[in-house]
Amino acid sequence: MGLKKGAKEKGKALEEYEEASGGKSSFLASPWILFVQSTDSNIKPGKINLVHIEDIQHPDEKREKEHKKRKKRRDRRNAFTRFRKHMVRYWLCYAILIIVLLAIGLPVLFLKIIPALAQRIIDDTDLPIYSATLKALTNDSVLIGLKTALDVPLGLTVGLDPVELWLYNADSEGFNPYTMVRLDKQKVKGHTEISVEDNTVGVGDRDELDKWLTGMLNNKEAEISVKGNTTAHLGELHFGVNLKKTVKVKALNRLDGFGLVSARIKIPPAEDGSNLLGDMILPNWSDLTIGLGNLTFSVWAGQLLIGQVSAFDVLLPPGNSTLPFRGQVFLETFLRNLPAVIGSQAASLGSGKIELSLNGNSTVVNGNHIGYLEKVLNAASFTSQVPLLQLLSDMMQSIASGDTDLGGLLDLIGEGLDSLLNGLRGGNSTSDSGGGAFSDILKGLNETWFGDGNSKRDLREIVIAKLKR
Question: What PANTHER family does the record tag this protein with (predicted)?
Answer without folding.
Answer: CHROMOSOME 16, WHOLE GENOME SHOTGUN SEQUENCE, PTHR35895:SF2
